[in-house]
Write a structure and sequence with these properties.
Elements: H1 2-46, H2 54-73, H3 81-108, H4 113-118, H5 120-135, H6 145-156, H7 160-164, H8 170-204
Helix pairs in contact: 1-2, 1-8, 3-5, 5-6, 6-8
Length: 205
């Protein structure tokens, strides 16, 4: 009887370990997808495509690609139906900051190219934070990377405030965009590593 309980405990731990390792890999994947999308948008600006919708358009593309990849990864994550449903519903919260930033504020304020090139970053941070607060309460994750990443992105968004007070030109716009991309990739990498090393705690319990 004790042997059976031990085997069941080991199986449960291995399942949670696999779940957390896969989740950590997804952060690295998301970082590459969103980083590539934002770099593409910046490249379009460099070659003369200054349409403001290029950034939200590429965010949508990155989101769709990430969503499709996530569904593929879900096959390896046997979540309870209620938990999976919460994760799917929680995605709606991520859209709220983007709707405010790209649809509502431009109707109220006069905003320039600098705003549209960097606002995706704090919007993503706010979306991740809202998503994390909603879904990470009763999940099987060892570390709360959504909350961690969202809070860190909002915190690092502060560096954009002094940049916005400079004389805005193409260099400032593109430089600020590259800065936000580099910060996002660094944070996503940190989240991936936190998830991977945090997964070891499952085995050590």
């Amino acid at each position: 009887m004790e042997e059976a309980e031990k085997l069941a405990d080991i199986a449960t731990k291995l399942e949670r370990f696999r779940y957390n390792v896969i989740a950590s890999l997804m952060w690295a994947m998301f970082g590459m997808v969103f980083g590539s999308a934002m770099l593409f948008a910046g490249a379009m600006q460099l070659i003369g495509i200054t349409e403001r919708t290029i950034y939200p358009a590429m965010l949508i593309v990155a989101g769709v690609i990430s969503g499709l990849l996530s569904t593929r990864f879900e096959r390896f994550i046997p979540l309870e139906k209620s938990i999976r449903k919460r994760w799917h519903l929680g995605l709606l919260l991520m859209f709220i900051p983007f709707i405010i930033s790209y649809a509502l504020l431009p109707q109220i304020l006069i905003l320039g190219a600098f705003y549209f090139s960097i606002v995706w970053y704090p919007s993503l941070g706010a979306g991740l934070l809202l998503y994390g607060i909603y879904v990470e309460r009763n999940s099987q994750l060892v570390v709360r990377n959504l909350t961690f990443s969202g809070a860190l992105m909002l915190l690092t968004s502060i560096v954009l405030i002094p940049l916005s007070r400079l004389e805005i030109n193409d260099q400032i716009i593109l430089g600020s965009n590259l800065l936000t991309i580099s910060m996002m990739i660094a944070i996503y990498l940190a989240a991936s590593l936190r998830g991977f090393f945090g997964a070891q705690k499952v085995i050590q319990e």
